[in-house]
Each structure stands twice: as structure tokens, then as C-alpha cells.
Amino acid sequence: MAAPVAVAWVTDVYGRRRSGRADVADAAARSYADGVAHPQMFDDADPFLARVRELALGFPDAAEKVSHGRPAFYTTKVFAYYGGSVREDGQWQPHDQAVLVLAEPETRAALEQDPRGFVPAYLGPSGWIGLDLQGRTDWAEVAELLEESYRLTAGVRRVARLDDR
Q1: From CA 27, how far away is CA 38, in angstroms rounded?
Q2: Cβ of 63: how many Cβ atoms within 10 Å?
Q3: How many structural domains is the chain composed of?
């Protein structure tokens, strides 16, 4: 007869309580405590990042975290990333100074036609679009894109608070 497996309440990476095997939970906790294998892929002194931060953190309850080595701006869901990449001809092409947002289909279609726009790896099939910030940067446009993405991902109460401003 197999030995009984200890079951425990664990908190996953999203802060939700789940029941699960204690040995697996311990291994996961050690793994996250040791750090995730993604290196930091941004420069905190980047002036484009500073401006994106200023805009993104101006939304109600917005916060920043590092996800997969890149800054991510979120409430309960991520509404923007700083930096991304695309796979072209089997090679990864970085877009280190870019903002990635979830966009309405019309906005996405327009940005796909813009030479600064790109469909980011992994997130593109879910409706995300990237905008390169190097060169000519229209910060009013970036602010609009961030707000649209925030409205698509934030809850009704947060959007109402944004509208009350």
C-alpha cells in the first residue's frame, strides 16, 4: 500500500488559496523564493520606461511588477508590458523600448498597418499589440493606448473611478 500523501492549503502565485500536495507546494515555494529564471531585460534608467511608468501608474489601483524579465503594469490583470519581442525568420527580434497593450480590434488593425506597430510573441494571438517608442513618440497616443487597455482589463469599479476623475 502506498504511503499517504500530505495535503495542505497553499497560496498560488496569484494569491489564491488552493488545496494541494504539501511536497509539491514546498518545492514550488522554494523555486519562487530562489527567483525565476528570467533575467531582467530592461534598464531602470531608460527615459521611455520612466514616461510609460508615469502614465501607467496614474490609473486607479495600478501597480508594477516584473514578469518574464520585463515591467508589467496591472490591477488584477496586466494591462501593459514594457518591451517585447517577435520571431522573424526563426530569430528573436527584441523590441526593448516598446509598450504592449491589449487593444480593441479597430485599434489593433490600425497599429498593424503602422510601421511602429508589431504583433508581439506569445501575447499577439490574444489581442495584444506592440508599439515601438524609439524615434517619433506621440505620448498622447501612448496614453490613449494604455487607457484603452486598462479599460479592457480593469474591473467595472476601477473603470468607474477612472471616469469620475
Answers
A1: 18
A2: 11
A3: 2
Q: How many CA atoms lie within 13 A of 111 on its CB side?
A: 28
Q: Which residues of the chain have pLDDT under 50?
A: 31
- Is residue 142 included in any domain, yes or no? yes
Write down the pTM of the prediction.
Answer: 0.78
- Does residue 41 belong to any structural domain of this protein? no
Residues in the chain: 165
Let me know whether 28 and 93 are in one domain. no
Grid cell at residue 42: 530592461
CA distance 30 to 36: 10
Q: Do residues 94 and 27 both lie within one domain?
A: no
90 inside domain? yes
| Under 8 Å between Cβ of 96 and 77 | no
Strands 78-88 and 63-67: unpaired
The per-residue pLDDT for range 20-49, each reduced to its tens digit, is: 555 555 555 554 555 557 899 999 999 999
Computed from CA positions of residues 18, 21, 27, 30, in that sequence, does the dihedral angle turn out positive or negative? positive
Looking at residue 81, which CATH number applies to its domain?
3.90.1150.30
Q: Look at residue 136 in the predicted model and tell me its pLDDT.
A: 84
Residue 48: the pLDDT is 97
